[in-house]
């Protein structure tokens, strides 16, 4: 996810901001230095966000409706 609310380590935007070089997945920038202040600010912001959606991987089988009858 570009931004994973409450989970900075799963947020692609933070990863792109905090890395440089071939592994950055971003277009080359004029600098090869990471702006640590910006990284901290974005990490803190993402961490305080509350997820508003339950994702498929968090579902349990008991929450699924019964299987539809087949003809």
Write the layout of secondary structure elements.
Elements: H1 12-17, H2 36-48
Q: What structural class should be given to the helix and strand makeup? A: mainly alpha
**Radius of gyration, in angstroms, nearest whole number:** 19 Å
Mean pLDDT: 77
Query: Can you count the beta strands?
Result: 0
State the low-pLDDT regions, or none.
Answer: none
Shape: elongated
H/E element sequence:
HH
Number of contiguous helices: 2
Beta-strand fraction estimate = under 5%
Largest sheet: none
Distance between the termini: 40 Å
Fraction of residues in helix: 25-40%
Account of the protein in words:
The protein is mainly alpha-helical. The chain contains two helices and no strands. It has helices at residues 12-17, 36-48. The longest helix has 13 residues, at 36-48. The chain is elongated, with a radius of gyration of 19 Å. The mean pLDDT is 77.
Q: How would you sum up this structure in a few lines?
A:
By secondary structure, this protein is mainly alpha-helical.
List keywords for this structure.
mainly alpha
């Amino acid at each position: 996810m570009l931004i994973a609310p409450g989970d900075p380590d799963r947020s692609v935007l933070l990863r792109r901001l905090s890395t440089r070089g071939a592994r950055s997945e971003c277009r080359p920038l004029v600098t090869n230095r990471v702006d640590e202040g910006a990284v901290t600010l974005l990490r803190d912001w993402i961490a305080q966000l509350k997820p508003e959606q339950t994702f498929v991987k968090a579902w349990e089988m008991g929450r699924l409706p019964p299987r539809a009858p087949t003809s």
